[in-house]
Amino acid sequence: MIIAMDALVRKFGQHKVLNGLTATIQRGDVIALLGKNGAGKSTLLQTILGFGLPDCGTVTLWQTPSVSLTQLQKQKIGFVPQQDELLEQLNGAEHLKLFSKFRSNWDQACCERLVDSWKIPLQTRISKMSPGQRQKLSIVLALCHQPELLILDEPVASLDPMARRQFLAELIDIAAEQQRAIIFSSHIVSDMERIANQVWLLKNGEMAFQGPLDDLKESVVRLHFSQPLADVPKELSLVRRQQLGTSTTLTVEHWQPEQLDALQLHYPGVRVEYLSLEEIFLELNR
Amino acid sequence: MTKVLSTALPGRSLEFNLMWQPLLAIAQAIFLSNRWFALAWLVSSSLFIIGIFSKAGWPLIFGGFTLLGLHLSIPIQINHLSRKKSWLLLPDFKPLILKLLLLILTLWLILVALLQLKASSQHWIALPYTALVFSLVMLPTIYVRHLWPLLAELVLFITALSHTETKSWLAMHFSTPWFIGAIIATSLLMWGLVALCWLHPAQRANSEVKHTSVFALYGIEIPWLQRITRSAGSLEGTLLLGDGDSWLASLVRASWATWLAPATFWLIGVLLHDSDQPQSRLWTAQTFLVLLVLCPLFTLSAQQQKSTQRLARCWLFTNGSRQAMYGFVERKFYQELAAYLMMTLILMLLLVPLPMIMPLLCYGTSATLLLCYLIFTLAGRTFWWSISANLLLLIGLLVAVDFLWEDSKLMYLTSLALVLPIYSLRRYGKAFWLKLDYAQLKPRQLL
After folding, report:
1. What values do phi and psi take at A271, rounded to 5?
2. Which residues partner with A60 through β-bridges?
3. What backbone phi and psi angles, to 5 degrees, belong to A80?
4. Is there a single domain that holds both residue B372 and residue B398?
5. Residues A215-228: pLDDT tens digits?
6. In chain A, which residues have their Cβ closer than 8 Å to the Cβ of B382?
7. Each residue of A165-200: pLDDT tens digit?
8. φ and ψ at B274, to 5 degrees?
9. Does B232 sit within 8 Å of A50, measured CB to CB?
10. Who among B226, B319, B438 is closest to A89 (CB)?
11. Pair B35, B139 in one domain
């Protein structure tokens, strides 16, 4: 187990940003961390990395509390923050040299490949680089020492579509090795759907859903009824109800495919629509 | 039927609002940035006004001093606002700032005039001096977007007044028409230059670059020098300092900070004075004050301020737990301090009479230790708490050295007094750092 959280609570003043989160991460997990702005995604990632102290509960990485990690354990982490933390007076080449000198397991071939394909201007000073170029360099610095745990806090926000595709392809390659764990927070939900195998959905500081992506996609569905419904069937856990003319659409969670047969007995024309991750996110956060 | 719509009245009201609302918003952001500041401004202004009209002297003195202290926050807050794009996008943000400053200056001139009337004084020379002091406090600081002009002015002011010759020269010319004329001309020139350069479109477009190197922080951009100071001893140390953490880098930084002022004096001396007797002319009290107090103390404290804001950047690279972070930052600080001491000592051995070396070194070291441990303790605290405490201590230390530096016993005693709180500060700071949220440390340029 790489990460274990138990009843994690973080407060800012009286406001509980994270409220009793319990979860684990294993090798091979690629976790899409979803949530609206202010849901606590960055706070969660920062707490996992030991930047902040839990007010209650525990976070351990490789069975060590996140605030007591050793250098060897920290070497196994790659982190891309929302805003890059590069040294403004250095250029790209100096950054890579600095990191390669002090990082064990530095994969120079991977570094050269990424720099080349992302066309990072290595001789340009960081202060003169565009936000996208800086972000690309941050990602290279986080990836090239082959971390066991990769934490990405909205890494693609400043990337152009081409670089985003390349970055996702790189991430898919890393995920395919099954040796690493990735936590990936982004508002581009379609990207996450392509690579994630697990979803953590944060809502009001709590885990609204936690589990495999496929389970989520099977559990939140849209049911189309060709007739108007007076009452919602009791066995359904309703998220949203829409009335369109004579037809009714219900978005439900905790859906189980076997429920369809029972529904069809009472509503013969009922149809199940499976949603994309983005649609599920929108439905659950309305 | 034609319906006539009268737009004149709403239009005028809109025009009025458009002119005043941004100005009021800026004034609010500067004076009422938080409730404590608002309260402080209110109390001190009330006391000052009560003082003008009452017979008791204390409200006037207390209110006046508090108001003067609070005025230091104006350029700091203006610099803070002008780094934010949301404020820069406000129509006429910079011209409005200048208008607001002119408004405050006018208020001050009215207050001083009232005081003159109260004292039944016929001399109105206080007015140009008020204008000059106000302009010196506000304008250079907002122009360079840094506090160092303010501190440099303070040191020059202290050193000038500590010299008997200067004092008598000032007393002689204080009220002469040509001197007053020069004061007025200087003030007008400063406003003119700021209006011309600060409001220039090129300056407006100049976006904020977050400098991490202490040299870049002061606007010193010398490529070969920065190449040396980037020399890294470790990744975590470099990320903490925002610059190279090797001994070579520390020594280069230290020699630059400690030798710059004396080297400049020496150069001026060589060019303008008799080189046979440099000591009597060049290595005067002023030189040592600038050399021993301002440069190393200011540079080192500015660097430590930066370091404490960069804990999040090095946390994932340091060896050890949170408990070890304070010690790690402390070790890096001591390396820098040792480099500064080494460079200062060499300079002193070359230039300063032997009996003066020890007391000056003791004072310099203890003052730096106290200031830097205070900076560590205040890491993560509210911006204004932190900056007020640091500035007050820095000014206190500068004033103290001016009074004490000729008496070695007093220097030793003061050094001892300065060292005493360090143990408590360290203990408190260490405990506080265990709970500190590194992600909440926002990079802000205080010193």
Report:
1. -130, 140
2. A4, A65
3. -115, 110
4. yes
5. 999 999 999 988 88
6. none
7. 888 888 888 878 778 899 999 888 888 888 899 999
8. -75, 115
9. no
10. B226
11. yes
The domain of B435 spans 214-440
Chain A contacts to B (CB-CB under 8 A): 42-43, 46, 49-53, 67-71, 74, 77, 79, 85, 87-90, 94, 98-99, 101-103, 127
pTM over 0.80: no
* Nearest residue in A to B323, CA atom: A68
Helix (H) or strand (E) holding A260: helix A259-266
The residue among B418, B343, B342, B412 whose CA lies nearest residue B373 is B418
With 0-12 CB in 10 A as exposed, 13-18 as middle and 19+ as buried, what is B300? buried
Beta carbons of B383 and B308 less than 8 angstroms apart:
no
The last residue of a domain, from among B205, B225, B240: B205
Nearest to B238 among A85, A88, A98 (CB): A98
- From chain B, pick out residues whose CB is under 8 angstroms from the CB of A73: none
Closest by CA position to B420, among listed B367, B356, B377, B361: B367
Residues of chain A in contact with residue B211, where contact means CB-CB under 8 angstroms, are: 88-89
| Structure letter (DSSP) for residue A276 | P
C-alpha to C-alpha distance for A55 and A132, rounded to whole angstroms: 35
Number of CB pairs, chain A paired with chain B, less than 8 A apart: 75
ipTM of predicted complex: 0.86
Is B445 inside a domain boundary? no
Specify if B13 maps to a domain: no
B337 CB contacts (<8 Å, ≥6 apart)? B300, B365, B368, B369, B372
